[in-house]
Every structure is written in C-alpha cells, then in structure tokens.
Amino acid sequence: MNKYLKRILGSSMILSALIFLSGCVQVKNGKPYGLIWDYLGKPMSLAIEYFANNQGLGYGIGLIIVVILARLIIFPLGIYQSKNATYHSEKRNYLSPIFTPINERMKNAETQEEKLAAQQELMAAQKEHGVSIMGGIGCLPILIQLPFFSAIYFAAANTPGIKESVFLGINLGKPSILLTAIVAILYYLQSRMSMYGLDQEQRDQMKNMMYMSPIMMIMFSIGAQAGVTLYWVVGGLFQILQQLVINYWVRPSMKKKVAAEFEANPPKWDKYKNTRTKDVTPKATGAISTNQHKKKKSNRNAGKQRSR
Q1: Which end of the chain is more exposed for a tag (fewer CB within 10 A), N or C?
Q2: PANTHER family in the record, alphabetically (predicted)?
Q3: CA of 48: how far to CAs of 28, 42, 70, 162, 178, in Å?
Q4: What pLDDT digit, counting tens, does each position of 43-74 carry?
C-alpha cells in the first residue's frame, strides 16, 4: 500500500465521518436539531449568547471565546494524534536508507510485477521496523474531535443574533472577503509549517497537498456568512499553535526517542542493502528475439553467397 493510497483511504474515512456528523445536525424551519446539536451545539450557542448579552461583549467576541474554549478541550487529543504521526514520521526519516531505494524502484518500475514486488518489500520493511501503514494517525482521536468541530460550526451558523451583529466593521451575517483572505493565509502557513522536519522525499510528496487546505478553506468561506468564517479564523490560529508545539517540542522528543530505540535494536541495514527487483520487462525479451532473428537471417545469406 503506497502513501498516496493511504492518504486517499484516510481522507475517505474523515469525509465519511463528516457526512455522518453533518446528518446528525439538521435545520428545519431555521432551527437546528439532532444528537450533536442537542448535546454540544446548543450549549455552545447558549454560551455565545451568554458572553454576548449577559457579559455585554458582543457576538463576535462571544463566538471567539466559545471557539477557544472548545478548541482547548480537544487540544490534547490533537497533540496526541500528532504525536503518534510524528513518531512514525521520524521513524521513516531514520529508516530512509531502507525505504528510499524501495520507493525509487516502485516509482521507476516498468512492469506491474516489478511494482508489486517493490510494494510488498516496502510493506514488509515497514512491518519489520514497526512503521504504521496509516502513519500512526489513528481514527479514534479524529472521530472524537469531529463532533466538536461540527457543533461549533452549526453554533456559529445558527446562533440567534450573530447574523445581525457587526464585529470590527464586518457584518457577521454576510460573506467577508477580508476574513476569507485571512483564513487562506493562516491555513497556508500551517501547511508550510507542517513540512518542518520532514526529509526531502516526504516534502516532495506533500508539496501538492500543501495548497489543498487553503484552497478548500477559500471555497468553504467565499459564500459562507462571516460568523462561520470567523470561527475558521480562530481554528486556523489554533492549527498554527498546535503545529508550533509539534515542531519545537513534540518532534525533537520523538526524534530522540526513535534514535534511542534503534540504538538499542539496530535496523538490519545489510538485509536491504543489495536487494534488487527482478527485471521481467517484455521489451528486453523482444530485443533479444529481434537480434537472434537478424543473426539467423545473416547466416542464411552468407551460406547462399558461399554456394555461389
């Protein structure tokens, strides 16, 4: 299973979960309802109204406070998930002398047999050295966080008063180009920061993915009311904060942990040093057959000349 397939499978699972959770919050006659809304979305909406009206802070500040509180609750889960992913990423970095040649053979394979053989060898090497096929991300932390993301979104979109409010001169009930631009910049910065500490091979593979997140956020924000986009702005700031923690605290500690583990149990470098994928390219056989045919034809012509 190559890395592109793993990303597709992971994205499919997350998308399926999002669709499921979106179905749990539905809007009828302008009023949301459903399991996620009743237990998470509605309390968040009431909290926004509390800060906006009871504390006199306004709906913009009230929304920001509630988003911060909700993100702080799930922040440890995000760090835990990223910690596991970083651990396996550092393992791949350490074992790049093993994985890189195999990936090169997979990339340059001329036949399906060569590609399958390289894929099997890569999976065996990953399993032998304890590198997770899914990158150590895990589905449970994601599934726990998704209801909170869904609840905050619907609270921002359906809390009474937000649509009629103005925050820093921005009408929260209408789309805002300014907030959309800020969201795109924040998620682009986070994508750039996520490449910190990766080897060149992983950087090359993630290069195209780096632009996907900001482009998607622009598409989501361009037609959304500014209240929802404001939620995504705060979420983008938290993503950057989380990435800073990963880059300057989690990754260095995981790098030391991986180095210590492999010093105690060194990888079998020699086992993969001289591995080769069997060449079964049909072109080579065709070329040999053509040369043999020409040689036989030349011999027959030579015999005819001598008989004359």
Answers
A1: C
A2: CYTOCHROME C OXIDASE ASSEMBLY PROTEIN COX18, MITOCHONDRIAL (PTHR12428:SF65), OXA1 (PTHR12428)
A3: 21, 10, 12, 9, 23
A4: 998 999 999 888 888 899 999 999 999 889 88
